[in-house]
Amino acid sequence: MKLHQSCSCPLCVPDKYAIRAQKTVSETKKVLALDISTKTGWAVFEDGKPVAWGTLFPDRTSKDFGGYPANFTYLARHLTRRLSSEIIQDFAERAGYGSNPDFSFLGDVIIEETNSSRQNYSQKLLEFIHFCVVEELISRKITPKYVRTGEWRSAVNARQTPEEKRLNARISRIKQRTGKKLAKIDGKVVGKKGRKHVAIRVVGELLGIQLKRKEEDAADALLLGLGFLKGAPICDGTPQGGKSKRAA
User: d(Cα 213, Cα 37) in Å, to the nearest integer?
Assistant: First the structure.
């Protein structure tokens, strides 16, 4: 049995849920990597190779759940239920594990550690979602592991190339000179190559997977999982935990 390449199950929202797969799933343990947010990227690895990945695009916002702060908790629970049913449960059923498994077939669940943000309410919602997801995983007999963003990026060498740095610098000079928000090179509007662009490029280089710009969160999840498999350290809840000796 092969996993589906485009979602058609009744649980999924058309054009809002993306799933990719490459090969038949076997009975070996898996690694699930999660880049959690209101738009969650995810990837499943088997024997060190990605077998399925995608993005859980939002179908509702906090405004759909009433007033603050209760709406944040309701949205976090809603997103967690979707993560459980539309990604983990759906994958389990298609892989032949049946319905309502305890999720232990996954082996390791790796989550990208949260980072501080100046957007305090966005940060609060993100932390609520993380709490709900971790609570759900623990209830399913899985203790997730957290990996710092800088550590998985270092493990897979997800850095800008000299060419990307030069392009970004050129774009900055053009904007400064023209006073415009958009920069044109050879008559075409061009944008800077940020971390999401780098992630998509590195996924193509290391895994041979060609992703579109809208699949940037899936790219991060793929590299997070790969970084874990390459030995990125695990967080332990302390300020220095999860940092390599280089970073510490």
Answer: 17
User: How many domains is the chain partitioned into structurally?
Assistant: 1
| Residue 147 is assigned to a structural domain of this protein | yes
Residue 55 covered by a domain? yes
Q: Where are the alpha helices (DSSP H) in the chain?
A: 70-82, 90-94, 120-139, 149-156, 162-178, 195-207, 216-229
Residue 243 lies in a domain: no
CATH of the domain at 94: 3.30.420.10
Q: Which residues constitute the domain of residue 136?
A: 17-157+208-229
DSSP for 155-181, written as a single string: HHT----HHHHHHHHHHHHHHHHH--S
Domain-located, residue 203: no
Per-residue pLDDT of the chain (248 residues; tens, 9 = 90+): 233 333 333 233 333 334 444 433 334 568 999 999 999 999 999 888 999 999 999 999 999 999 999 999 999 999 999 999 888 888 777 777 777 666 777 889 999 999 988 899 999 999 999 999 999 999 988 899 999 999 999 999 999 889 989 988 988 898 888 888 888 888 888 888 888 999 999 999 999 999 999 999 999 999 999 999 999 999 999 988 888 876 55
DSSP state of 67: S
The 8-class DSSP code of residue 63 comes to G
Give the separation between CA 98 and CA 181, rounded to whole angstroms.
52
